[in-house]
Specification:
Helix content is 20%, strand content 21%. It is of the alpha+beta class.
């Protein structure tokens, strides 16, 4: 269980960062209380702005994970990884502080992360998500209805989540460039009014190919869509 304790302690004097070369890329956010969640960020706020906001803490841009909507627009939230849980608790002392002079008197929220944040934290350093059961069929009653109408009893299908709203079937095929998708194998899931949901069913040539394609789970969708998640 991650901490939900009230922030304590005050800010300390800034200290030097260790050499950047020593930093290993973060492939999954820790669940040890060392991560805080920010809300109310200006949409034009950058990772550098967040680091400046947390002056006095040992942070790099790769420790900051800006959250975005499926179409790539910022949603005003971020996860920030600190050295340890004590540093994260100290960071929450900055809750409701103004974000920076160039953004006026706008303040931001800084919270300890909770168990309810885990799904978003798991996706944060990565990209699109692939969902499949052991029999290669999607989960959920609504998914099964859509799946059955399109694929019947066929196997070798993955459900893809977190696709940018502007992405095309060609973009999806490019994402799976080294995997064999059937000619009409990309089926986007749409809302009732025709708007994209950011999800699709992908039918591969064989069930084995679908299982192999799971290697792409949480991979970045493409540089043209930015560092989205």
């Amino acid at each position: 269980m991650m901490s939900s304790a009230d922030p304590m302690l005050s800010a300390s004097v800034p200290h030097a960062l260790p050499p950047a070369a020593s930093a290993a890329p973060i492939t999954s956010l820790p669940q040890d209380g060392s991560v805080v969640k920010m809300k109310g960020l200006p949409f034009k706020g950058s990772k550098e702005d967040i680091i400046k906001f947390f002056a006095g803490f040992s942070l790099r841009t790769e420790h900051v994970f800006l959250r975005k909507h499926p179409d790539g627009r910022p949603n005003g939230e971020a996860f920030v990884v600190f050295e340890n849980s004590d540093e994260a608790r100290r960071a929450t002392q900055k809750d409701r502080e103004t974000f920076g002079e160039k953004f006026g008197d706008r303040y931001v929220r800084v919270y300890p992360t909770l168990d309810s944040d885990i799904p978003d934290m798991q996706a944060a350093p990565n990209g699109v998500q692939l969902v499949v059961r052991s029999d290669n069929k999607p989960t959920g009653e609504k998914d099964h209805k859509v799946f059955s109408e399109k694929f019947g009893d066929r196997y070798g299908v993955l459900k893809m989540k977190g696709i940018p709203f502007k992405a095309t079937a060609m973009d999806v095929r490019k994402f799976f460039a080294n995997y064999k998708i059937k000619p009409e194998g990309v089926s986007f899931i749409m809302h009732a009014d025709g708007r994209p949901t950011g999800m699709a069913f992908i039918e591969f040539e064989t069930p084995q190919e679908a299982v192999r394609a799971m290697e792409k789970d949480r991979a970045k969708f493409g540089p043209e869509y930015g560092d989205r998640f």
